[in-house]
Amino acid sequence: MSPQPSVVTVSSRRSLLKAGGVLAAATLVPGAGPAVAESGRSGPWRKVPDILRKIRPPRFPRRRWEITAFGAVGDGTTDCTAAFRAAIAECHRSGGGRVVVPPGRFLTGAVHLLSNVELHVSEGAVIAFSTDPDAYLPVVFTRWEGTECYNYSPFVYAHGQRNIAITGRGTLDGQARKGPWESWYANGGPQGADQRALRKMGDDGVPVGQRVFGAGHHLRPAMVQFVKCRDILVDGVTILEPPMWTVNPVLCTNVTVRGITVVSTLYNTDGCDPESSSYVHIHHCRFNTNDDCVAVKSGRDADGRRVGVPSENIVVQDCHFSGRWGGITVGSEMSGGVRDVFAERCEINSPDFPGNHPVKYPVYIKASKKRGAFIEGVHVRDFTGRGVEREVIFVNMAYNSNEGGSEPVSVRDIRMERTRIDGAAAVLNLVGLETDHLTGVRLEKCVFTNIAGPDKIAYTDGLSLRKVFVNGVER
């Protein structure tokens, strides 16, 4: 028996006709008024103050260790890996404090943080990461594109630690353009074979201890990754040229990322990817990326469902987004589920921070029947911006549909309020599935100008527009 037609609720019949585009299996309910997108204390945003009260950046004893006291030389050529390791170990053994990187250029391999250690990168200091993959061995437990394995260490890494930080006005330089990382994926490079092998291991349930990559393999490590940690702060630093995802908290809680600048040019170099993490606050950051800016994730396919930990209670505020794909993004690795993501007062393609690529979608949600699971509650308000390359909101429940899959997937309660965007291909591209409808997309008090084309709406229930103006006409 075929599914019943989708029901699209908008503020008027005229609104639906003006939306144009594709209305697959959708019917208008005559006389149905919009479900008003509540704001303030009466709506979902009432949760935000309580979430923020539970996110507390770590604090550290007033003790300091300079890496130069452990043999580090800031000449850009001396290998300082041992000095970083020794300074962090001594700080940790002594009950914690600040490991200071003074002005200079310090070359190093992997830096592993320990509990109660603040790595402080002073203004004028640069941590330059080695371009030799062997500098990130031995392998460590990690998640790579949402699948657990053992692989090259992320450039800055912590596992099972508490009370850790990276702070300062200095720079972390991944030097990715100078290393082999791009050759691993570009033009059909060898990363593809390892990527497919790892995904198959995840789907087949191969024990994680047997999923060993690293030497002889080509899975690029993340730049900064915290795994199963809590009480984390990344504050103030500039992060240049990561080899892959830039800041990636995995299975973490109580995370603050504030005031950082990310500049990335390699493929697949997201800005900040909270993954299966909760109580995360990302604010006053600038993202100039060659992929998504902030991308909320929770594991991939069968392996993500096996771990089964959602990302939830995530707040993004006052950021600048310039990136090749999404501004605030959820997915595509979301097989553990995502709920309660809030983003407000962010600017898209700011003239003061134009970036290398214009954002394609200020809000980009990616799911599929291969991923399964749910996305419940993505709330956006007070965004401003210009020059959006494609749609303002793209919800795609058929992401990478060539992958197949038969898992039930749910995407519901996507809201945008008080947003002003000048220039986009369209406002909405909503791709639900015939078997799994997209539910509850609501826009309220938004103004969109210089919109080039019509919306596309497929298999969507409960679409509501209230006081939404497109090219001067109320929808």
UniProtKB/TrEMBL annotation:
The keyword Hydrolase applies. The keyword Hydrolase applies. InterPro entries: GH28_Enzymes, Glyco_hydro_28, PbH1, Pectin_lyas_fold, Pectin_lyase_fold/virulence, TAT_signal. Keywords: Glycosidase, Hydrolase. GO terms for molecular function: polygalacturonase activity. This is Polygalacturonase. Pfam families: Glyco_hydro_28. Transmembrane segments: none annotated.
